Amino acid sequence: MGKLVVMGAMCSCTQGTAPGSLVVAPSNKVAGCSVPAANIMDNIPMTNIMPFGTCNILTSAASGVPTPCVPATAAPWSPGASKTMIANQPALTDSSTCTCSVGGTVSISSAGQGTIDVS
Fold this sequence. Notes:
The chain is mainly β. The protein has a single domain (about 1-110), classed as Tumour Suppressor Smad4, CATH 2.60.200. The protein is built from 1 helix and 8 strands, in the order E-E-E-H-E-E-E-E-E. The chain has one helix at about 55-60, and strands at about 1-5, 10-15, 20, 85, 90, 95-100, 105-110, 115-119. The strands form 3 sheets. Strands 3-2-7-6 form a 4-stranded antiparallel beta sheet, with no helix packed on it. A two-stranded antiparallel ribbon has the order 1-8. A two-stranded antiparallel ribbon has the order 4-5.
């Protein structure tokens, strides 16, 4: 159980220096919510998941030269909602995380406006 994640949600990465936003396709509309809702497949870098400022791992690898974050999330968010579906996929909840192949873990820091509880 958790809050349904919608357009306008904010994310953070354990290796990023700034928050990033989650972009959800306008077609993902659900009853009771005025903005599009996300599902576990909304994990595409630079389409759904925006950069998190500077990447600490890449900066360390570059001998301290600040290196911009470019999200590298290949797998879906996990876990999704157990019962609620959005566009034939489990809904994304505020307890879901997504792994960046660079080494960070992306999580939802704010589910966005108009959120509702889902299971």
